[in-house]
């Protein structure tokens, strides 16, 4: 470009000037070409500096996000977040592709649960025994549970029930957690079938009561009778059946407006069960 400009200047000065000014034509053309060359260099330099500045800005922005993320992770140093991040990078760098995909799906699932918990609640299809075990291990003060449908489907003779009761026993012995369980049956005659279950749980240190719906006052029978557990009077674990009576979804909730009614419900039915146990049968 500079050479072209210099050539054009030389030709134009030759046409305009009739005198023999060859040297001056050459000097002027070289000067103009040099000016154009310097301008090109400056423009290129400015563009490069802008590109460098944009790159530096992006790097600083990335560093800012990384620093913020690191500071947040530092708050969880005693938890499994750093271990998860470190091991996740190791998994994706070895093993078959299906292993990578499985690890990513598990991380995404966990991330989804944590994201849901920002709103103080989360749900999962079916009955989630992993959540039940984790919550039991995290409890520091109390576990209040109402059991209805699990009485009929033989839950207490299953392996998950054995692990659940073992975790509750550990909570009672190691952390002095108070565990109360209220079994609700439809009719008084069903109470006898629960006797072995109640005895086993009482031997583990669990406070157990049984109440029959047909013996409850009408105002206690109103509302849905669902299985739920309240941990530390702060978080509920609810099992919601579908129209066929199957456990279709599990929800955990730490919203006060959800937990408080469940606590009141448990307290009312627990007290009613105690009254019925001490009430002599009608003659």
Can you offer a commentary on this structure?
The protein is an alpha/beta fold and 283 residues long. 59% of the residues lie in helices and 16% in strands. The protein has helices spanning 2-16, 22-75, 81-91, 97-117, 129-138, 149-152, 159-175, 195-203, 218-221, 256-277; strands spanning 121-125, 142-147, 178-185, 207-212, 227-231, 235-241, 247-253. It has a 7-stranded mixed β-sheet with strand order 1-7-6-5-2-3-4, sandwiched between helices. It is elongated and about 105 Å long. Residues 4-13 have low confidence and may be disordered.
Strand order of the largest sheet: 1-7-6-5-2-3-4
Taken from the alpha-carbon principal axes, the silhouette is: elongated
CATH class of the largest domain, please? Answer: Alpha Beta
Q: Please give the number of β-strands.
A: 7
Q: What's the CATH superfamily of the largest domain, by name?
A: Endonuclease Chain A
The Cα radius of gyration reads: 38 Å
Helix content: 55-70%
Unreliable spans are 4-13
Could you name the CATH topology of the largest domain? Endonuclease, Chain A
The assigned CATH architecture of the largest domain is 2-Layer Sandwich
Query: What characterizes the major β-sheet?
Result: 7 strands, mixed
Into which percentage range does the β-strand content fall?
A: 15-25%
> What is the typical, i.e. mean, pLDDT?
77
What's the number of structural domains?
3
Protein structure class = alpha/beta
- N- to C-terminal separation? 116 Å
How many helix segments? 10
Helix-strand pattern: HHHHEHEHHEHEHEEEH
**Oligomeric state of the chains in view:** single chain
